[in-house]
């Protein structure tokens, strides 16, 4: 086991992820949710799968998935959720 | 000494009336402190999974992991380090979210959540432009 490499990759990824989008998403979702463990498990699984794909496929991920289109769709979804929270509908409760 | 053995010999079963009915503990349908609607576990898991996965695809973390695993001869060590770091950061994120939700009023929490989700959307679009 190469402990130097292990700690190096831990520190690099940890610093890169602090305050990044995925952590913002985790903070936002867990503030309003009822199952914080579900948010933690979902976020951790997604992150591990994403980095697993990064290790496994390398650069080929761009050919496998339409990454810009997925990101655009996600941006629209996040913007919609954010706008609905900032300016909720005047009547009817918002689902949280 | 007639008083000593009193403590030892008192096996009289005098508290059958204290035993609670077991089905009343689990099902308290009119508990006012519970949230009115309890969503399932799975929708929140899937929401977190899908949004974080899409947000993280092609991100700088993935690029760093990719570069390190390509440079070194042992990609699985890099993967183990990255996975541990990612688990830690998402745990920190959830803890910060729960802490904020206790500290802020519901209205302030909603505003903060909306602003943070808008920020995530902007960051994602920035990624797309600079991909």
Based on Cα principal axes, name the global outline of chain B.
globular
Report the end-to-end length of chain A measured between terminal Cα atoms.
45 Å
Helix % of chain B is 55-70%
Query: Measured on Cα atoms, how large is the radius of gyration of chain B?
Result: 27 Å
Query: Which regions of chain A contain 5 or more consecutive residues with pLDDT less than 50?
Result: none
User: What proportion strand of chain A?
Assistant: under 5%
Question: Could you please describe the fold and organization of this structure?
Answer:
Chain B: InterPro entries: GDT1-like (IPR001727). Chain B: Keywords: Membrane, Transmembrane, Transmembrane helix. Chain B: It is a multi-pass membrane protein. The complex is a heterodimer of chains A (96) and B (131). In chain A, 76% of the residues lie in helices and 0% in strands. Chain A is an all-alpha fold and 96 residues long. Chain A has two domains: 3-58, no CATH class; 66-96. In chain A, α2 (21-32) packs antiparallel against α3. The radius of gyration of chain A is 17 Å and the shape is globular. Chain B is mainly α. Chain B has a domain at 43-131. Chain B is built from five helices and no strands. Chain B has helices spanning 22-26, 41-56, 60-71, 75-103, 106-129. In chain B, α3 runs antiparallel to α4. The N and C termini of chain B lie far apart (91 Å). The chains are: A mainly alpha (96), B mainly alpha (131).
What layout of secondary structure does this protein have?
The complex is a heterodimer of chains A (96) and B (131).
Chain A: H1 3-17, H2 21-32, H3 36-57, H4 61-64, H5 67-86
Chain B: H1 22-26, H2 41-56, H3 60-71, H4 75-103, H5 106-129
Identify the notable features of this structure and list them briefly.
heterodimer; A: 96 residues; 5 helices; B: 131 residues; mainly alpha; 66% helix; globular; metal ion transmembrane transporter activity (chain A); GDT1 family protein (chain A); GDT1-like (chain A); transmembrane (chain A); membrane (chain A)
